[in-house]
Design goal:
The complex is a heterodimer of chains A (318) and B (312). Chain A has 12 helices and no strands. Chain A is an all-alpha fold and 318 residues long. Chain A starts with a helix and ends in a 5-residue tail after the last helix. Chain B has 2 domains: 77 residues, no CATH class; 206 residues, MetI-like fold, CATH 1.10.3720. In chain B, helix 8 crosses helix 10. Classes of the chains: A mainly alpha (318), B mainly alpha (312). Chains A and B meet through helix 6, helix 10, helix 11 and helix 12 of A and helix 1, helix 6, helix 7, helix 10 and helix 11 of B.
């Protein structure tokens, strides 16, 4: 509460000082101030937060790494020679070589692609399922809502790791594309519930608004109201939840790959490299520490970014 | 209250059959050769094939055959007969040896979460906005954001191998000292959540009317906090910790695997690695039941503890 009051007080001061912030223009007190939208307010709030900038830079960096890994290292991650086993840093390999004699740093850089791909695609698929279920449940209410909400309850009650183990053990194929697709599918099927609840509650709020009633009186059908009037309002909170979910999907993918049931070699994944590095950590720790640091920073960046945006968009927390 | 418990029980029975059906359908039935799927990549001898066909009634076909085998599996599960792993050991025996270790580990983790999480949460809630509050918020964000597969091996390397503060791995029949580091790693996640929950709920309750009344009656601040605020603030924390006990029993796969602790999660970890289908299904089935029961107990506990909550 006190936070809210300080913000409100400083905004009043800003208003008194006039739009350009210059003192000494006393006649401007009564002049109407240009109203700021919620997005504008949130952006003002975000700009001042160092955590937002740090996590945004990290997210952009890792995205660039996934898109063009060649920018960050000129070494080939699959160029491995046992003669270089646990060799000291040399040339472009700034963190030395791992047990198989591969460049530790190059492998960590190339590992970003699988992680981000799985994270982003499962977040998109999650978003699609969540929007569909949340919109239907929130807009129509009644028995549709009752049935869909029970489905959400049941799926929410399934432990993610155990269910993923059972589902992924079922995948017989070793092809890289199939495995990536399977991991994405499993994460989305088990992970859409939280976002669906968020969408449902924002749809219920939007449904009662005057502009929806106005659109209905003008003769708009259910489909048009949902698509043009309710969806834009349900989208913002869903995107915030999905940013945080993206971080946890990346962590989940790494965990599954670590266990040996997610992605498999020759796909380069941080989870696989962490597991390999763990086995040989007594000889050399860098092959364990480097992919661990990459994974932890990426997951943290997405979670902190989502957290910062959510705080900025939630007026109650100000 | 009675109606709520009955309804909740019915829901659990439904969830139990739903989940076991899914587990069973995915592991044993469906397309392809179930015996080969069970054995993974390894070759199956004719004797093994004949044995498994007879054991799981694989000669019955169609939907009827599927449900026949499913109810076979369910009735075995309910009788506590989990069958044998591919190596021939009884899964019931494996689990009986593993449970005490896992429970010990879960208790250490919960103790860590309660002692540090709740204490720091109360302090942060009372001094909201202070340096201590902001530092704990940032620290818990870090803990919540770092996956266990990073935390566990790094803790093992730095604290166990490099600086040798703790024993790096636990052997068979581990003692308290060997389980301390894994317990802390396992409990750190619950610690962070418990801290945040306590902080929010203490900060909220400090503004409640009954606290103002207690203060204006002249009660010392210490008594207001320790008796009035704390008792009401701990309701969500207790229920959260209840859910966590269920989670920790099933969620210790990574920690137990990394630290070589012969608990339930470790056996599951090994079952996945060695492609031991029956072992994985047996353990997953039991863990799902544990998880469901823990959730049921917590829901009922919630309704008992907090009279404001009504499930109708």
């Amino acid at each position: 509460m006190s936070d809210f009051e300080t913000v409100a007080a400083s905004e009043n001061q800003a208003a008194r000082r006039g739009p350009s912030g210059e003192p000494g223009t006393p006649n401007q007190v009564g002049q109407p101030r240009k109203p700021r939208s919620l997005t504008g307010d949130a952006w003002r709030d975000l700009r001042r937060k160092p955590i937002f900038w740090i996590s945004l830079i990290l997210v952009l960096l890792v995205t660039a790494m996934a898109a063009v890994p060649g920018l960050f290292t000129s070494n080939n991650p699959t160029d491995c020679a046992l003669s270089r086993q646990h060799a000291a840093p040399s040339g472009g390999a700034i963190f030395g070589y791992d047990f198989q004699g591969c460049d530790t740093y190059a492998r960590a850089v190339y590992g970003a692609r699988a992680s981000l791909l799985v994270g982003a695609l499962s977040a998109l698929l999650t978003g699609a399922i969540a929007l569909l279920v949340g919109m239907l449940a929130g807009y129509f209410g009644g028995w549709v809502d009752a049935v869909l909400s029970r489905v959400i309850d049941v799926v929410l009650g399934i432990p993610l790791l155990l269910a993923a183990i059972v589902l992924l053990k079922r995948v017989g194929s070793d092809s890289a594309t199939v495995r990536v697709g399977a991991v994405i599918f499993v994460l989305a099927v088990l992970g859409w519930t939280t976002a669906a609840r968020v969408v449902r509650s924002s749809v219920i709020t939007a449904r009662e608004q005057d502009y929806v009633a106005a659109a209905r009186m003008l003769g708009a059908g259910d489909g048009r109201i949902m698509w043009r009037h309710i969806l834009p309002n349900a989208l913002a909170p869903a995107i915030v939840v999905l940013t945080i979910a993206l971080g946890s999907f990346i962590a989940a993918e790494a965990t599954l790959s670590f266990l040996g049931i997610g992605l498999q070699e020759p796909t380069i994944s941080w989870g696989i490299d962490i597991n390999n590095g763990r086995v040989h950590m007594r000889e050399s720790a860098t092959p364990l520490v480097v992919p661990s640091a990459f994974l932890a920073l990426t997951v943290l960046a997405f979670i902190m970014l989502g957290d910062a945006i959510r705080d900025a968009f939630d007026p109650k927390l100000r | 209250m009675f109606r709520f418990i009955v309804r909740r029980l019915l829901q659990m029975v439904l969830a139990f059959f739903g989940t076991t059906l899914i587990v069973y359908a995915l592991m044993f039935a469906g397309q392809g050769d179930p015996i080969q799927a069970l054995a993974g990549e390894r070759p199956v001898t004719a004797a093994q094939r004949a044995y498994l066909t007879e054991k799981y009634h694989l000669d019955a076909t169609g939907v009827g055959g599927f449900f026949y085998r499913y109810f076979d599996y369910i009735s075995n599960l309910l009788r506590g007969d989990l069958g044998e792993s591919l190596t021939g050991r009884s899964i019931g025996d494996i689990l009986a040896a593993a449970w005490p270790v896992t429970i010990k580990l879960a208790l250490i983790a919960i103790a860590v979460a309660v002692i540090f999480g709740v204490t720091a949460g109360v302090l942060a809630g009372i001094r909201r906005g202070s340096i201590f509050d902001n530092a704990t918020l940032l620290l818990t964000l870090l803990v919540l954001g770092i996956p266990t597969i990073v935390l566990a091996p790094l803790a093992q390397y730095f604290l166990g191998v490099k600086w040798q503060v703790f024993p790096p791995t636990a052997g068979a029949d581990p003692g308290f000292g060997a389980l301390l580091l894994p317990g802390i790693v396992l409990g750190s996640l619950s610690l962070a959540t418990a801290l945040r929950l306590t902080r929010t709920s203490v900060a909220e309750n400090l503004r409640a009317d009954y606290v103002r009344t207690a203060r204006s009656k002249g009660l010392p601040s210490r008594r207001v906090v320790s008796v009035h605020v704390l008792r009401n603030s701990l309701i969500p924390v207790i229920t959260f910790l209840g859910v966590e006990v269920g989670n920790l029993m099933s969620g210790a796969i990574i920690t137990e695997g990394v630290f070589n602790i012969p608990g339930v999660g470790f056996n599951l970890f090994r079952g996945i690695r060695t492609e031991d289908g029956p072992l994985v299904v047996g353990i997953v089935s039991v863990l799902v039941v544990v998880y469901l029961v823990a959730n049921l107990v917590v829901d009922i506990l919630y309704a008992v503890l907090d009279p404001r909550i009504r499930y109708e």
